Amino acid sequence: MKSSDNINPKLSLELYVYEENFFEKHHITDLSQLTPYLSATKKFWLNVVSLDNELLSGIADIFGIHALAIDDIVNSQQRPKLEEFENSLLLVAKMLYTKSDISRIQAEQVSFIIGKNYLISIQEEDFDLFDGVRTRLENPAGKMRKMGPDYLAYTLMDAIIDEYFLLLEKLYDKTEQLEDLIMADHHKSLLSTIYKHRKSMQEIKKVIWPTREILSAWKKSESIFLKKKTLPYVNNIYEHTVEIIENLEMQRESITTLVEIYMTNISLKQNEVMKTLTIIATIFIPLTFIAGVYGMNFEYMPELQWKYAYLSTWAIFIIATGGMVYYFKKKKWF
Amino acid sequence: MKSSDNINPKLSLELYVYEENFFEKHHITDLSQLTPYLSATKKFWLNVVSLDNELLSGIADIFGIHALAIDDIVNSQQRPKLEEFENSLLLVAKMLYTKSDISRIQAEQVSFIIGKNYLISIQEEDFDLFDGVRTRLENPAGKMRKMGPDYLAYTLMDAIIDEYFLLLEKLYDKTEQLEDLIMADHHKSLLSTIYKHRKSMQEIKKVIWPTREILSAWKKSESIFLKKKTLPYVNNIYEHTVEIIENLEMQRESITTLVEIYMTNISLKQNEVMKTLTIIATIFIPLTFIAGVYGMNFEYMPELQWKYAYLSTWAIFIIATGGMVYYFKKKKWF
Amino acid sequence: MKSSDNINPKLSLELYVYEENFFEKHHITDLSQLTPYLSATKKFWLNVVSLDNELLSGIADIFGIHALAIDDIVNSQQRPKLEEFENSLLLVAKMLYTKSDISRIQAEQVSFIIGKNYLISIQEEDFDLFDGVRTRLENPAGKMRKMGPDYLAYTLMDAIIDEYFLLLEKLYDKTEQLEDLIMADHHKSLLSTIYKHRKSMQEIKKVIWPTREILSAWKKSESIFLKKKTLPYVNNIYEHTVEIIENLEMQRESITTLVEIYMTNISLKQNEVMKTLTIIATIFIPLTFIAGVYGMNFEYMPELQWKYAYLSTWAIFIIATGGMVYYFKKKKWF
Amino acid sequence: MKSSDNINPKLSLELYVYEENFFEKHHITDLSQLTPYLSATKKFWLNVVSLDNELLSGIADIFGIHALAIDDIVNSQQRPKLEEFENSLLLVAKMLYTKSDISRIQAEQVSFIIGKNYLISIQEEDFDLFDGVRTRLENPAGKMRKMGPDYLAYTLMDAIIDEYFLLLEKLYDKTEQLEDLIMADHHKSLLSTIYKHRKSMQEIKKVIWPTREILSAWKKSESIFLKKKTLPYVNNIYEHTVEIIENLEMQRESITTLVEIYMTNISLKQNEVMKTLTIIATIFIPLTFIAGVYGMNFEYMPELQWKYAYLSTWAIFIIATGGMVYYFKKKKWF
Amino acid sequence: MKSSDNINPKLSLELYVYEENFFEKHHITDLSQLTPYLSATKKFWLNVVSLDNELLSGIADIFGIHALAIDDIVNSQQRPKLEEFENSLLLVAKMLYTKSDISRIQAEQVSFIIGKNYLISIQEEDFDLFDGVRTRLENPAGKMRKMGPDYLAYTLMDAIIDEYFLLLEKLYDKTEQLEDLIMADHHKSLLSTIYKHRKSMQEIKKVIWPTREILSAWKKSESIFLKKKTLPYVNNIYEHTVEIIENLEMQRESITTLVEIYMTNISLKQNEVMKTLTIIATIFIPLTFIAGVYGMNFEYMPELQWKYAYLSTWAIFIIATGGMVYYFKKKKWF
């Protein structure tokens, strides 16, 4: 067995020994203190706040934990996983939290080793997340003392997942904030109506999907409370849910196409506006230029004295306009 | 057993006791009144209109229902689920309804606990949704009395799902309304033709998909009415349906690409319009400026007296135009 | 048994009784006429052209068909399905057809009940779709008389699915028509090249996908004609098909990105055109205004007499232009 | 047995009879010549270049092939499939080829019937695709003579699939050509960088996906060469591949969003350019009009003589400008 | 057995013979040197740096490796795969690396043949990738010598996959670089906020997905450390994770729609800007032209002397404007 002398002296592990009618809390300063509990009949929870490889290897030696499990625990970039080893079971979870802004989500790895009569939890920093669990463990009336170390692992996982919901709430707030910002400009427009309509469909889908699942589960269930005779009826409403889902999907697709058409419509209208502008500008800008030329005050402009100059100019105006109109007609602009 | 003294006195539970030839309705005001029915041979339905934790825990104690089931019932944010416990089966469903506008869909949780000879239904508020079921239960000729509590649960679920169809109809109305609004502008356009074409394909797909499924089911069925000898033939038409689906998918993809090309086409045309405008404006606006300059009435404008001023101005006009045309040619604008 | 007195007198059911060497056609006007055939050894086909609930319930009583099956048949909004009951098998199919335009697809529900020695087909209106099947049944040399009622059901399904192909052809025509319309404008453009390229890939995929499937089926097949020794070789070409599919997918993704880039490119070019126009217009329009001001013919315009007015105006022109150019440079417009 | 007198006289079937140490090639002109080989111990390959229904039915009669198999072979619109019948196995494949341009892919159906000691291959036109296989069959040292008819079918399928790779290469060439065309315009732009980045990710994914699959296969493999003890380690690297795939997906999504932002950015900039133009034009065009009015040379224009006309005009200019600026401010255009 | 005389003389294979307490390294120059190790009890690793078909066929003959395995090894375009043969197991992997730029990813095929007591690794070029494994093999205290050849294959695969992570890091750098480039322009804009929000959701999803998986694994696990009694609780938090995922998906969809609305909004605003410009320009450009006409200095312009010419011109101005306004109103432009 590995000597635990060289363990960081500042380190102190929390050990909770418990049974239905028993509860003790110890501060472990030397790993050899753990050995007596191993074969004991009492259950215990060892909480380690450190990713120190040496320390964890020491613990692994005592409990016969596979080396790969320790590797997974120490590597804090691990994705959540559950792995079964011969003598124990490894569960790597991630705690998510934000310190201030939702755009900075931080992850903390929390690992659990579940053995026959023990749970070892390993985290990098001490969070107050598990305080509630500690309190419940101290309470002799609670369920936790009666149940095994896997139930303890469950309550700790539960605490972690409850934290996710807090995050989800913050995300919701941000989404709503974005929604307000974007919808502010055109809260009465067609697009916002479509948006709300889509949301209604989402909400129905959110209910109808799991409903289909439970009816499917009913069909397959072998529970004695569900008789075979009822199955054709259940199958009937199961198919109703399938039908509703199909219809929702069809409507969703229709609406997507409608939005596409709406957007193309905007482009088409913009094109029409552009054409109007271009036609008017293209016809009159050159004409205005010609008028401008003969508005110049040069002393020597021979055309000014010509008798039919003015008439000719109007002829030019009319011919130029006619040419332009013909050109635009050919281009099918109007 | 928990004392039921502190149960909200305003509360009254409806209890329906029934058998093929028996029907009774009771108002339960004290939970202890329930005990006699537990071991009885008669079936009963207990309808609870309350999410009061204490009340439900009291009921759970009497029927031996798992504490987690009560948690799920009380938490009205639960998603629909079916969970099997040792002594009973929990089914959490959601009723959906709108009071006026389809954009405000409201959800009401309805939970069912199915036991050996009982059904407990729990809802938050009293809806008239179950009235039809009550009437059918009172009818001695109906099927419901002969069947077990799971059949009763089925009929209640059926009532809930029928409500979904009402919602679906409202959604349809809204979708059609949106369709009318958007298509109004260009009901003869190419896009509306494409939209209708897509809808036709959707409708065919809606029929052909389940047809494929039933032929697949036929192939796998072990029903005595379906002989093995017919299988190769069934397989043959099964493959026809597969082929039709593949072809529909290919056409759908083609049409998506066509719409894309159509939209790009609009952009390209808009670009062309823009170029025409820009070329005309860019050439003539500076020229018009120059003409404007020599149309000014200042007394001291030396150029006005120059002999070749007018000619030079025309030279400038022509050179500027040539430069512009060269520039646009180089940019490949025309 | 239900009295059939109140059956619609106009109703006449077609009954075909057949065996390898026997064929008879009856017109049933009273349901009691059906009873003798039930336990007979001969096979028969009953064709019902009605969704009348009462009539169908009467038939159901005679044949012992589950009430839910009748519900499914009568509800003409049913999606296609296959359901096994104790005494029979229900198959609900949909016939699709168009009267004129492909954009109006109509669906007709056709249901089949397959029993030990009978087939009941139920449709709402009489179509000539099944005429071919009747002719084949009358032909003593045909296969149909030898086979059971499930084979008869297959031939009827076959007739329905053949109808789908007619629809598919009409859809194709419409798709091609749309293609012609959209591609007309730019049949030599890059986009049409991409479109054709994509179609080529689709066509290859259409062949390679089922090829992969059949090689996969070969690998798993337990046919005595396929020896185990050949398997590694088959696996080899199976992997070739997988590779081809992967490559096609990669190319498809590349092309999607290319189209995206192409479209962004158009936007970028349009932006450049816009900028040119804006720069020219923004510089010269204000200058032209100033020139216009001093082209006014008011009698009392003091600036006109100033000696350096003309020079100052040019100074203003140059300064304004410089300012504009500086502003556009700062905005990085050129 | 069907008389083969009416077989097309021009038709000649190729028959290859072979065994490990035996090879003979016959030209069959009458189907009755085939019968002796049926029960023989030698293996043979019959190559039919015709989709003539009568001929194929004749062959089917001799070999006891199911009529549906012949239907599938004759219908050249069949999708590839593998179907097992009692006496034989049908494999329908498609040969793909292009005569010149990749945009015109042509498909040729090739069907195989595999029996106990024979292979029948049916194609519509004679291609030189199978020449290589014939040569290998003539070679006494080759493996092909030792193996059964299914191995022969494999080699023919191999030849067909090799042809697909040629097509794939042509598609690649076309894709690259398109890439060059589109990227030509902006080979240094951000978009082309993104395009290359995406391609890198695709290439990695192409390797990492099957790597994950093989590690998954290792985990599930029951090969004696893979010991159970190594499994946790393999699982470890399996999870690494999963992690890499997840990260690639996350990056891919990020880049899609980035491109979206980039394109929106272009739109926003275009909007800004448009606004600048519109503000300048909207302010100065009306002013220029007013200046133009008072530049007209009518003899009777009373305003021209007014003393404060010029000043008033400037007042109008300033007020109009102010009004415009106020309007644009209110519209939040700048 | 094949003679190995004609093997490339420059070729030298590395052979590592090892056992728990034994390690030897040989340079093989003749394939016949390999035979003694085949039936030996010691384990060995043969590293081949060559894709020479002849050499590999020689090795295959000695070890009884299937010819298809050699085909797969030599064909360096193979996708990664695992294939089981009678006497051995083939694993084809790909090493990925970049020499400089991430946009040029290169792939090197590395194949492994795992036999009873040997591992043969085949690569095309010698990389220093396996140096670490060699060092660990030389170390007598290491685990590698105790384990079989499959463990050795695992460590080599591990080295290859570690290399992927390096690539991934480079990809990340490039993605971040692109992000910086694109976001630079509008780091405070709404779009960048949405982008960050989406990233937060991605990060949560990255944790919550595997968490759901491990809870699902817990539910199905048959480990003795996980008691049945805890299952309902685990199921409870499992459903929480499902709910979180559903909510994230719903939010993601909402945000996608929001971005769509935002982009449509930009188009709509651009349209409005365009309309303003077009209205102003279309009204005033023709008017300015008319004013310009009467600003011309021709000597013979009869209108100039008319008494009501000026008034009439104003009348024309007003009528033209009115007509335009009416036209735009009819077009619903404002």
TrEMBL record, chains A, B, C, D, E:
Location of the protein in the cell: Cell membrane; Membrane
Alphabetized CDD domains for the sequence: TmCorA-like_1
UniProt catalytic activity: Mg(2+)(in) = Mg(2+)(out)
GO molecular function: cobalt ion binding; cobalt ion transmembrane transporter activity; magnesium ion binding; magnesium ion transmembrane transporter activity
UniProt cross-references to InterPro entries, sorted A to Z: CorA_cytoplasmic_dom (IPR045861), CorA_TM1_TM2 (IPR045863), Mg/Co-transport_prot_CorA (IPR004488), MgTranspt_CorA/ZnTranspt_ZntB (IPR002523)
GO cellular component, one term: plasma membrane
Pfam families cross-referenced by the UniProt entry: CorA
Membrane topology, as annotated: Multi-pass membrane protein
Transmembrane feature ranges: 277-296, 308-328
Keywords carried by this UniProt record: Cell membrane, Ion transport, Magnesium, Membrane, Transmembrane, Transmembrane helix, Transport
Biological role: Mediates influx of magnesium ions. Alternates between open and closed states. Activated by low cytoplasmic Mg(2+) levels. Inactive when cytoplasmic Mg(2+) levels are high.
Family: Belongs to the CorA metal ion transporter (MIT) (TC 1.A.35) family.
Official protein name in the record: Magnesium transport protein CorA
Organism phylogeny: Bacteria, Pseudomonadati, Bacteroidota, Cytophagia, Cytophagales
